[in-house]
From TrEMBL, chains A, B, C:
Cellular component aspect of the GO annotation: mitochondrial matrix
Subunit structure: Homotrimer.
Major localisation: mitochondrion
Catalytic activity as recorded in UniProt: (3Z)-hexenoyl-CoA = (2E)-hexenoyl-CoA; (3Z)-dodecenoyl-CoA = (2E)-dodecenoyl-CoA; (3Z)-decenoyl-CoA = (2E)-decenoyl-CoA; (3Z)-octenoyl-CoA = (2E)-octenoyl-CoA
Annotated GO biological process: fatty acid metabolic process
Keywords noted in UniProt: Acetylation, Fatty acid metabolism, Isomerase, Lipid metabolism, Mitochondrion, Transit peptide
GO molecular function: delta(3)-delta(2)-enoyl-CoA isomerase activity
Transmembrane stretches, start-end: none
Pathway connected to this protein: Lipid metabolism; fatty acid beta-oxidation
Protein name as it appears in the record: Enoyl-CoA delta isomerase 1, mitochondrial
Superkingdom, natural source: Eukaryota
EC number: 5.3.3.8
Keyword DNA repair: no
Species this chain originates from: Pagothenia borchgrevinki
């Protein structure tokens, strides 16, 4: 049943990325006197905007990299720095991750970082993807994903690192690890994260078929925990995180760490070989050709 | 959905332990000519009453340690001796565990065994908790929990060691590993037992939040297998166990042992370090202070 | 709930095997000009009939060993050779496994191969069971089980090796690993395969009780993925497999292999000891006596 529903709703990355032209900037500013935006020193517009409410100890991280919050090397570097700052700030106990772009949470890994690039560049890029996952999956903060748009591939991975996932109840959105649809393979730690979320069997089928689930189907298999009307997602995330923060930090953090340690250790102790594997795979002629064809198709759609 | 329902129903240990004053002695005696109560030689009233029906090969273990069947060192020692006797009696093939106290199955670990006690005492206590788990989770008998009251923390652990769980369908009762709510952490083998019962994702959320589930929610996530009217729980447990006993013992026992071996071996081979870890943790000033504050609160409620 | 439903529907192997007399030969031939039956050189009638449609890249393997597709040494040898041929044929990308016998998919391991046979014979037989599992669970092809009849024990194992399971929606059929009902034990790789399909808790209960599930219950626990009217099972399997084949082979195959590698490696590196364990177990007097009694009972039923 879930398979058939998911197959019907398969719109894929292509449908998503082609929305580039329709992207607008409806970022709602909601800075209150209590919110202390962190200082930044980038020459380009920041791709991440963090609002930290000292009265609650909760930071909201708005991803604002037009058009679709693609996970580029720059974006990931900025995101990791932001998370690390919050992690070291003892007054920050919770983190909500959401998107400031319309219709999309994050479209996943930026293909331009892997197409026609040197092995060195691909390796540095992959290290930053690993770093994002390690920082978020191993965070001491309570993390909640406020998934207010589609969230394929790396976007889904990012959402799965969180302690809780609330998704906008909009049937046009979808979420999943759809790598095989592009002819590539989700690495073992993507797999492990999904297995920890929805179990072995659902992961096996979802990954082989590169399934993207509509919100209602994602809820059914446990890929997200709760659906809310789109304009309520962040508000509900804020209420939810306050319940998690009622638990003593120390006990909650040790518990989280014990539950995830094995999965995290597996990447930590295989980090270099995982980079090597990715670089060898992605720089293959056949894979480059496939990525090139895919980007060409996207360009034509946009024209 | 499950989270929100569970959060609504969160009454916690405090609500439970404060019922001490209302505890009465409504233990229903149902000894038939076939039942052979085991001989006992304790100077204090026995905390465990075992009825063994030789005609069926099924023993019923009534926990009767007022007010709330707290797992004290004495209680656990008595329980382990009882289980061991039954295990060695080849005519005993099935065990039903239930409570003779009103409203509670077991309130879990006895805090007074960990507060203001010597490291030696804490270590001996912890060893007895391990022993209870090893004996029950590795039992060759068919074990069924007839959960006729609330079952937080160690009470939930005990229920989870069984092959099958039937809970009273009373929305005032709850079950779960709520350790984090008290600022402490469920050890790895509590975690493993819960993962084996409800899966990784549900365990991760339940343990971080210290969730206590109402019977209907516990059924939904698979923490219990069946709900029955309160006065039917033991009768249904008796019917259920007879179906399990229709399977040839030898094949069933090997199957059970193969399914649980890895989890049991993990504690067996880390038993001393687990005790050391517990003693170091529980004797910390901050944890002792937290336990003291909790006990003070309970005293005030009872007054 | 699931337990009670499954217990109600427990008809067991005996009911199944006793249908031998009613078996007819309603094998529907549906060879089209595109179908190229593979050449065979057996003196006895082939137990496996393969139809390969070059236009779709999909082979359909009809098991046709009267009366109930018991997994004998000959049957398994023929099946393994067929799978290997298809695996090496690069034009074959998908495999549907189904039964040409009425009312049964496969009744599982052939007891006559284990009763009154030499240790050498038992060992050779067990090796062929392992080989079947290794070939199917590790297949690079998309594999779909079109389960058009009952599927106990080894029949269930075979179905579980597939990527997707469609079962006839006939409440007279059942599926499950019911070994304990016969006094024997499903080996660790049967267990692992079931755990990968329905999770630890369901497997633990199903295997201890030797549960056979009706189609509706099998769907509920995830043992099968979809139910269809009996005469639609193969047609729907054909539609389903075409969706799986829309995914680039290379990415799908690596994904499948990564998801199953650990489970497969466990048998591969313990193959000889697993055979030794089986031979020691099955040649025991008590087990032989139990198998003998079971076969005697079947004979009487048929008379």
């Amino acid at each position: 049943m879930a398979l058939r529903a998911a197959l019907r709703s398969r719109s894929g990355l292509s449908g998503l990325l082609s929305q580039r032209s329709s992207c607008s900037s409806d970022i709602r500013m909601c800075v209150s006197p209590l919110l202390v935006p962190q200082q930044r020193n980038y020459s380009t517009p920041p791709k991440i905007r963090v609002e930290f409410d000292q009265s609650t100890g909760v930071a909201v991280m708005h991803m604002q990299s037009p058009p679709v919050n693609s996970l580029s090397l720059d974006f990931l570097t900025e995101l990791c720095i932001s998370v690390e700052k919050l992690e070291m700030d003892k007054s920050c106990r919770g983190l909500i991750i959401t998107s400031a772009q319309p219709k999309v949470f994050s479209a996943g890994l930026d293909i331009t970082e892997m197409y026609g690039k040197s092995p060195e560049h691909c390796g540095a890029f992959w290290r930053s993807v690993q770093e994002m996952w390690l920082k978020l999956y191993g965070s001491n903060m309570v993390t909640v994903a406020a998934i207010n748009g589609s969230s394929p591939a790396g976007g889904c991975l990012m959402a799965m690192t969180c302690d809780y996932r609330i998704m906008a109840d909009n049937p046009r959105y979808n979420i999943g690890l759809n790598e095989t649809q592009l002819g590539i393979v989700a690495p073992f730690w993507f797999m492990d994260t999904m297995k920890n979320t929805v179990g072995q069997r659902t992961t096996e089928m979802a990954l082989q078929l590169g399934l993207l689930y509509k919100p209602a189907d994602a809820l059914k298999i446990g890929l997200v925990d709760q659906l809310e009307p789109e304009d309520q997602v962040i508000a509900v995330a804020t209420q939810t995180i306050s319940r998690w923060l009622a638990i003593p930090d120390h006990a909650r953090q040790i518990t989280k760490s014990m539950m995830r340690k094995k999965t995290i250790d597996k990447l930590t102790s295989n980090r270099e070989s995982d980079i090597q594997f990715f670089v060898n795979f992605i720089t293959k002629d056949s894979i480059q050709k496939s990525l090139g064809g895919y980007m060409e198709m996207l360009k034509k759609r946009r024209a």
